[in-house]
Amino acid sequence: MADTTDHVDVEAGRPRAAARAKRPPIWTQIPPRIWKGCIGLVGVACLATLITVLASITDLGPSDQILVKDPAGHWVRQGPFQGVIFTTYPKEVRQGTLLQPHQYAVVKNQLSGKPRDIDGPQLLFLGPYDKLLKVSQKVVLQDNEYAIVKHSLTGVIRHEEGPTLFHPGVFDTVLRTRSKIVLQKDEYIRMVDGVTGAERVVHGPVNFVPIPLETSINGTKQDLFLNIDLSALLLNRNTGEQRLVVEKGAFAPGPYEEILEVRPLIYVLPHEAVVVRNERGQLTVHAGTDAKDGLGVSFFLPPYSEIFTMMWSDYSSLPADSSSRVLVEKIDVRARAIYYQYEVRTRDNVKMTLEGTIFWQVKNVSKLVLSTADPEGDVWQHARSVLIEAVSNATLSDFMSGFNAIVMDAFRRQAQDGFYLDRGVELQSMEVTRFDCADPATSSILQEIIQETTNRINRLTAQQSENDVKAAALTADILLERQRTELITIKAENERLQAQMAGEATGMQLMKGAATFIGGLNESLPSIDSRVELYKLHEELQSRNKDTYNLASGSAHLFLTPSDLNLRLDTRTTKNGTLEL
């Protein structure tokens, strides 16, 4: 009824307004209790709104980000920001991640599950559904380094070469960092692919990064320097063939080639011979005398060949019970000496020990190789048997008196029996340097005999020496006397010649004096006889005056008879009548 009245009043216009004006306000009709409750509710709502507004005020710095987890879709807002973000959904304020130039981040989208990498330098803000998995350091690769990187999904391995600041991918794992392989001018390295097994050889000078999964078999190797004295024997692992490299210079094998050995040049001197056996077992003799100049030969051992070696007995010193054995690669074709010590018995059963030397020589190397493996042992044993036979046919006294003849007879017989000729050797001589009795008693008697013989020989030698000394002294005396006779003869001849020369000189002087004296009297005494007589008188007076002078100047006493004096006084009368002697 009330509603109808109001409606009517409204439709009536003024009557309704008048009626409403007369009615009191509705809130005056509300009880105070209700009024207080409404005011309290409004206050609480205002307070809640105020609290919500205050809580929604957001102040974001430059490195801040807010994430709103709205069920309809998460969303983010980056700073700097200052304002109200009104939402009733959970919020999260998070810091941005500062990435340095040497860093990178791996972020995962939680809706798609797909990770991605973000490179620095930058300030990283995550997306609404992003999750920061890690922040990693980039790999610094120097100029001489490389990194081995593995893809986690595919398993593929690759190499990253420096110099660079390497940023691995999302699924990349840096296994390790290694130095590049540096090869010098004379170096090489063999690389093998770990997947295909393919092989390659890298030669220097170079620095390189190997192919992924490629490894080195033996590391860096030095080139082999070949000259006139060295060669290299190679094996090709593909074909199994061997070849010999003799070219001079630095050499490195190729792929699938292996250096089996370095073979030196084999020198064969003029007095040597080397036997080589090939893969077919055929023997080839390289003799030093094959060279035209006579200075020896040299050669490299061919592939599949080897030097034929033998084991020879060594009798270079007196053996005991057995000889030593030596390895012989080069056969010496010069004369060789071996020493022996044999025990033999004479025909009268005297046991003796003989020591001596045997000289022998290799004459035909081919025969020697084909007929015997120990020529020195054969010579020693055969000479022993022949010498035992020869001594057994002689008694002790015969042997002592003529052991040289016995040995030489044995030597001649064995040199002609063909044993040595069949082995390509020649027996040159066999000498006995010492013999002794094996029995001590017999040896003592033999020593006495030898001592007595030696004493006798020494006495004969001493007597002979004394006779030789006397004969030499006598010969020297005879020679001295002959030389004295020659001296006397020569001195007499010299004196005679001197007297002759002096007489001739004096005669010439006298003759000249006589000629002058006689010639000067030509005018006074024309008669030559008178002049000669006068000269004789003059000389006689001169001689007497000289004799008188000699007697007067000496202390000798001279006794003369009147007849010896032959004194004559000549007197004559001078013009004045006096006598004058």
Automatic annotation (TrEMBL):
Keywords tagged on the record: Membrane, Transmembrane, Transmembrane helix
Keyword Membrane attributed: yes
Transmembrane segments: 38-57
GO CC, alphabetical: cytoplasm; nucleus
Domain Band positions: 297-459
A Pfam cross-reference name: Band_7
Name of the protein in its database record: Band 7 domain-containing protein
Organism: Polarella glacialis (Dinoflagellate)
